[in-house]
Design brief:
8 helices, alpha+beta
């Protein structure tokens, strides 16, 4: 029994000693945890004060704003021309010097062109011959076209048809007989006179013609007195005399008559003959023939000159005229070639006289009188250089993203380091579609022409600025105040800030009460037991976080962990705005802000500090849920008997 009491007493002492050691360990752990908690609070407050001191702000104001495109370039003359020679030879004239102002067309150089004289003369002669040939071909074509106009052949003489040689279906060529013609409107009679008497008769003497049948006397005129003698019967020597009379209407080739001239009577009678007898032949050119389709004359018919004789087939008429038409075309081609040859030769001669192609200033003169101009494999020699300095141009290289904003006629401001204090103006005169590609960027050349060059010189470096858009008295904020998604952080009003501070103080008081309770060892043990009875609390908090750091929410974000507003500084709220013109310095605000609003200006260092602070989690207290940490941060570790903190979520 005694032994049992001793054993029981030892057992109680042993339990008491173990319980005492447990209490001591808990006190040490609690002290360490409380020290860490207060150190974290102090560090967080210090970082917050440092963050508040680094926040930069600006005031929404009104001012003029513009969007502009700038580029650097160099000036070029309006036009540049290098004077070269197309021919070889000796320079015989060069009446100008460097610096002279020359006019377009003014003679600069003359080169010896004596070698071209023979070529020019030959070309002129060839042209004259070609002109004559063309005229002849045109005349022949017109004549032949008229000859068979309407596919009808016409007479070239007039008279009665004595004998007809053609018929329908015949193919006639040049020279073929058509008919024999005679004209009896005037008749002639030839009679002999004794040689002695004939010697007294002269051409033009009046004669009396006595008709044998009727004895009627007709006046006539001597037209021929033969010089040859003939012998009649009885040995009489005679000479023939021809007399022409007008046919009163009854004379024929069978009518006999005698003639009396100046009292001399002819030695024998004679008969009348027509004054004119003609053989009518086909008169066409070339080797083609005409086929008679319809004969329009007959023997005994009287035909006038140019009257219709026969019709020909259309086919043979077309073939016949084609030969003349081809001749005209060939002659015209030869004429054109001759004209071109003369023109080219004259151009070559003109090349020996070199004139100024533009009006401008002579910059360099490389050739002088006496120099030999020659061509070589490397090309022609530059004899002089002329600049048109009436104005100057520059070329801007514009990115593909901006080129659609550039239009011909836009004004350009131009400055040059070489001409300080002056601003020049220009105009966009060309937006080229000939792009260039380099390092993944496509650029387009834009040509700007200066309105006034002033003291600027070609080659000077300039800066050009094109105003794309502008607005006067616009509501603006600094460009660094505009956040992604067209949001601006606007400083809260004092009333809103005071309410937020009151809420924070209330939260601090509640936290202090909790700290007092946790300082009681007995209570701490009880809280730990309570935490052990709710093991899912921490897990629930962690699983439903979604980056939310505060319980406050409104249409204007004030720092919630939602996408796009997790970095809103304390005392500011995110406001959605509508923007207008944007440049490197300012952003035009069309709606969302008012003049005088104070806005947050982004700072890389400040933003980084705030982000680090907001992502740091707290350390859990003994048996409590102290691991909530800063909004949006990682949860801390729970103390003994407590749960792990939620991911960026305050425990309630």
């Amino acid at each position: 029994m005694e032994n049992e009491k001793v054993a029981a007493e030892k057992k109680r002492k042993k339990r008491k000693g173990k319980s005492g050691r447990t209490v001591i360990v808990l006190i040490v752990v609690l002290a360490a945890l409380l020290g860490g908690f207060f150190l974290y609070k102090k560090k967080t407050s210090s970082q917050k004060r440092q963050g508040d001191q680094s926040v930069s702000t600006a005031t929404v104001k009104r001012t003029d704003i513009s969007s502009e495109l700038t580029a650097s370039s160099s000036l070029s003359p309006k036009d540049t021309y290098e004077v070269t020679s197309l021919v070889e030879g000796e320079v015989i004239e060069a009446n100008f010097e460097e610096g002279d102002v020359v006019e377009k067309g003014q003679v600069l150089y003359r080169i010896d062109a004596s070698s071209m004289d023979s070529d020019l003369s030959s070309a002129e002669t060839s042209l004259q011959r070609a002109k004559e040939s063309a005229q002849t071909a045109q005349s022949d074509y017109a004549e032949e076209t008229a000859r068979i106009a309407g596919n009808t052949y016409r007479s070239t003489a007039s008279g009665y048809i004595k004998t007809l040689y053609i018929k329908e279906g015949d193919k006639v060529n040049s020279g073929m007989k058509i008919a024999d013609l005679y004209d009896d409107s005037a008749m002639k009679i030839t009679v002999p006179f004794l040689s002695g008497e004939a010697a007294e008769i002269n051409v033009g003497d009046e004669a009396a013609v006595i008709l044998e049948d009727t004895g009627e006397q007709i006046s006539g005129t001597v037209t021929v007195v033969s010089s040859m003698e003939e012998t009649l019967s009885g040995g009489r020597l005679v000479k023939n005399v021809t007399v022409e009379v007008s046919n009163p209407g009854g004379l024929t080739t069978d009518t006999a008559a005698s003639v009396k001239v100046d009292g001399f009577v002819c030695s024998a009678e004679g008969t009348f003959a027509a004054k004119t007898e003609t053989t009518l032949s086909v008169e066409i050119s070339g080797n083609k023939s005409l086929e008679i389709e319809n004969l329009l004359i007959h023997e005994g018919s009287y035909v006038e000159k140019n009257s219709e004789l026969f019709q020909v087939t259309a086919k043979t008429a077309e073939e016949y005229l084609k030969e003349f038409k081809d001749a005209v075309e060939s002659a015209d081609d030869n004429l054109e070639n001759a004209e071109n040859k003369l023109s080219n030769t004259q151009d070559n001669v003109d090349d020996y006289t070199i004139t100024a192609p533009i009006s401008g200033t002579v910059i360099t003169k490389n050739a002088k009188v006496g120099d030999k101009i020659s061509k070589n494999s490397s090309g022609t020699t530059t004899m002089a250089v002329i600049y048109d300095l009436s104005t100057m141009t520059l070329e801007m290289s514009v990115d593909e993203l901006d080129v659609s904003s550039i239009k011909v006629g836009q004004s350009v401001e131009i400055t040059a380091d070489a001409v300080e204090g002056e601003t020049f103006t220009g105009t966009v005169t060309n937006v080229s579609l000939q792009s260039s590609y380099s390092n993944g960027v496509t650029n387009y050349p834009v040509t700007v022409t200066l309105d006034d060059t002033g003291s600027l010189l070609p080659g000077m470096n300039v800066d050009a600025k094109i105003i794309l858009d502008s607005s006067e008295d616009a509501l603006v904020i600094p460009a660094s105040a505009l956040m992604r998604g067209n949001r601006v952080y606007v400083k809260k009003s004092p009333d809103s800030t005071e309410n937020a501070d009151t809420q924070r103080n209330d939260s601090s008081d509640n936290a202090g009460d909790a700290d007092s309770e946790r300082k009681n060892p007995g209570d701490g043990t009880q809280n730990a037991d309570s935490a052990d009875r709710q093991p899912d609390a921490g897990a629930e908090a962690s699983g439903s976080s979604k980056g939310s750091g505060t319980d406050n929410s409104s249409s204007k974000s004030t720092g919630s962990g939602k996408s796009g507003s997790s970095n809103v500084p304390d005392g500011f709220e995110a406001v959605q705005v509508t923007t207008g013109i944007i440049n490197d310095d300012y952003v035009e605000i069309l709606s969302g802000l008012s003049e005088g609003d104070e806005v947050y200006i982004s700072s890389d260092s400040g933003s980084s500090t705030q982000t680090n602070q907001m992502q740091m989690g707290g350390m859990g207290g003994p048996g409590g849920d102290m691991g909530g940490g800063a909004p949006g941060g990682l949860g801390g570790n729970g103390g003994p008997g407590g749960s792990n903190g939620g991911s960026g979520r305050r425990s309630q």
